[in-house]
Protein 1
Amino acid sequence: MATLKAAYLNELYKISKKKKLFVAGILSVALIGIISLILLGINNLAGIGMTSKGEFALLILPFFEYTIIPLFTAFIAIDMFNGEFTNDTIKLTLTRPISRTKVYLSKVFACATFIGVFLLFTMLTAIVISLFSEFSLSSLIKIIIAYVSTFIPLFVFSLMVMFVSNFARGSASAFLISIVLFLAMKGLEFTLPTFQSFFYTAGFDWYKLFIGSYINLSKIIRLFFIFAGYTTVFLFSGISLFDRRSI
Amino acid sequence: MDFAIKLENLTKLYKNNRGITDLNLEILPGEIFGFLGPNGAGKTTAMKIMTGLLLPDRGNAYLNGYSILTDYENAMRDIGCIIENVCMFPYLTAYENLKLCARFYPEIDENRLLWSLQETGMLAYKDERVKNFSLGMRQRMGISLAILSNPKILILDEPLNGLDVEGMVEMRKLFKRLSKENGTTVFISSHLIHDVELTCDRVGVVYNSKLLGVEKIDTILKNYSSLENYYLSEVDINGNS
């Protein structure tokens, strides 16, 4: 456990030193600001009530969930594998007294932490902007539940990218394959609606199930098991590839 | 007898038929062993297998009695190495790169970290990003990273590459001192035959994926005018058989 913790702290340290983290932060704040200004403009000038400002954090969630967060998660995950294999820095970790499985898990945990922090940062920024107007406690609870539950599909996505990173030859191809896979699953959801529930991408907006007036428990449980299944497959396939990878 | 390094029938052949075939070798604790051979002879392949970076087709490597295949964490616990090239995170400083490695060894404190930089003459550059380092400085950093944990075994692939004459002498002295004072086993691969002659207690000649012979430097120098002559003789007699 001590070596796993050491590797995890190292991964977090490396992420914290990357420019991507600051770019992600600045981009998020800028986008949240721009979206809020647009909504404010529409509300005030056109007189169209797009959203009550208490729901602003929920309104921007799907936009961030489908764009900025998976994009930067993919960058981070690919950097952890393809990036380190390409410039050989992976040797610095692999020649230490730690098994490859633990190295892989440390990267998974670090990526999960990145997603969690990114979601928290987005949520807090949106809440701060929302605070300038009416903001009720019920909204706050809804917002927290929505953002916390959104972590799971994004985590499964990061595992998929990590798995892809372990068979793709370079960073660019890993990124491309990951995006194509994601879009293919999204496309198949619509072309094969019967099998929609087999794709984890169908659960990207499952947070809506928690915050609606009626909670569909059976659907939540089914989606949870879909996520668990994909997590198991991507995690163990990724570890298996990583374990046999020659350097 | 407990060997520091034991290689048993180590075999790894690539598609181009290069690699290493049936490598058997035993190295005693505290010994400085030189692994000599031309480019593509299989030196780096053997070292990669010894440090778990590459899986062998067959055979096994034991470090301090632990199998690299079945007991990796214990096998690597007391190992410091440079394999192929010195790899560091370019966006981090020398100190930060060392700190990342130090996390795996709870016994390493600040003094040890600074000591490893001091020993290789890199203390003055500890706060500089490694992306700005010259080849020689990178090599010195690689040695700092290897000696950081006070390992029982150092596995060094061409450790003197890119070093100036002064640096080569300093590092040679360092390896000899670690071997003498701490009982550190040093396994060095090099094509710099003169340096191997001055540094090592024993050498093994590897050629065309095979280990041709292993001999003590003292014995070689009794029978040959130089290590170079021994090497050429071994290659000439056994190399193409």
Protein 2
Amino acid sequence: MATARPHATVEPWQDPNAEPILRIEGVTKTFGKVYAVDDVSLDIYRGEFFSLLGGSGCGKSTLLRVLGGFEIPDKGRVLIDGVDVTRVAPYERPVNMMFQSYALFPHMTVEQNIAFGLKQDGRARSEIEDRVAAMLDLVRMGQLGRRRPDQLSGGQRQRVALARALARSPKILLLDEPLGALDKKLREHTQFELVNIQEKVGTTFIMVTHDQEEAMTMSSRIAVMDAGRIVQVSTPSALYEYPANRFVAEFIGAVNTIAGTVVDAGEDRVVVRAHELGQDVVARAPQPIPVGTDVSIAIRPEKIDVREQPPSGEDNVVQGKVADIAYLGDVSIYHVRTDSGHVLRVQETHAARTADPHYQWGETLWLVWNAADAIVLAS
Amino acid sequence: MNGRKPFVLYTAMAFGYAFLYLPIVAVIAYSFNKSRMVTVWGGFSLKWYGELAGNTQILDAAQRSLLIAALTATLAVCLGTLAGLALARFGRFSGRNLLSLLTSAPLVMPEVMLGLSALLLFVSLEQLVGWPERRGLTTITIAHVTFCICYVTVIVRSRLVQMDHSVEEAAMDLGARPWKVFFVITLPLIAPALLAGWLLAFTLSLDDLVVSSFTSGPGASTLPMVIYSKVKLGVTPEINALATLVILFVAAGVTIAGWMLHRQGKATG
């Protein structure tokens, strides 16, 4: 999993004086009795690559359509550069959208597709030609301008859709599952290319995706959505390492969750009685949690250390037997069943070259992790 | 077993085609018959075509029928497209289900009922407002349009439903206003459906006997009406010649339309 991009160290959302390019204020959209988007507020800043991440039906696409002007929210406001555009028609908004199906005009050539928006703006003919050529160059499609969409591959169509949406230099580009229709190999390649293009043109990108890896790779920040609400907004690394709740922890990457009750609370650590493990677990808690609270402990598989001998002096030690091994080339995943019957997922990196697994089925292992690496989540 | 299968299939196919097209071939062949007897071959001749060229009654009726069919098809495509658009694109508006029902009702209504109700309408209109003054070309056209609209609506609607709506949204997103989107994006993409609807309406109108009979007036007989009245007096080879010309005309129309649709299909994917 890649981390945030290097230039994302500039973080406008940390700056109290920064003016957001897009402000969403309490937007609610219902279809019948279903809350597709439920009281969402969000600030997005100039030059961000922002992702709306969630499962199907979480409201991310509806929110994007609200931004594009295709849905009018029941409540709330949308401001672009401080101007209220909540009820402005799609053809009068300074945003453009790249559709999931690409929505290329099948009866026009690639060039005509890209020129379409420029023509609507009434630009001069020579200016349109220059701009179309520049856009074709940007997406490396210079040779194929005279083709029609049905003569292009999926990847090429995706580039044309991107070029067409960027041609009018929108303030914000909306991308609805831009890589959803591509196969896995092409998708990975295109992820980086899309980020490079975004850096080159400097436009604010807002992307909808259900693919957490895609969101992690490309975004400056991610908003995780569930049931029409925003659950957490963070940088990819913060989302992974400091999930706000169990939903985010389980949605982003793999995680072991252990339910329990706080039995002792120190200054920055808690002792949790984990019924599933039949023992106590120590975890770091940034805020004090009162004794008796029901919590979940989340621990990522790669943060668990495996020992073949009983260790001493560690924060947490759990004993168990290897129940399953999955060899993935770069890493192996072990499922370790504790004496209480709970299964923990552990990840081991293959740093040295060997065809043998590190551990065998049925082997007794001691799993060790630091209190600081475990996250305490409200149940 | 495998070797016999094509033989059986080809035989079945031959019977099928024979059943469909042998009568038409017979009509064409007998249009070149010298003999006055329709069922007796008397040698090759073009004389019935000559007689047809001199028969002003038939030629007038043919001209009238073609004019009615062209007017009907054009009007039905305009109105049917609007109805199809409303049903496929305007979301849920009040009266949508009623409109859907009303546009498909004439598809299943007996033609006699359509003709009779159109006649009653025209008669009472004439008494109430004095228009249409007499029944003729105008009333036939209006009656034909009413039942042809449904066919066009069904075709256009299903094409619009199939079409990716986001293409229209994309055009709007790129700055085109709704009317512009309709003319520059929607219309070219549903053009094959419009052409198909136009041809269907044209054929239905050209071919209609029942509704025309009810809504026509003195001196405004359509071609099917003239043929029908002539056949009652016995078929003449002249009718065969006329039928051959109509078949040629229709075949040419279908071929051209098919070629255009094919080309369009290639262009729009």
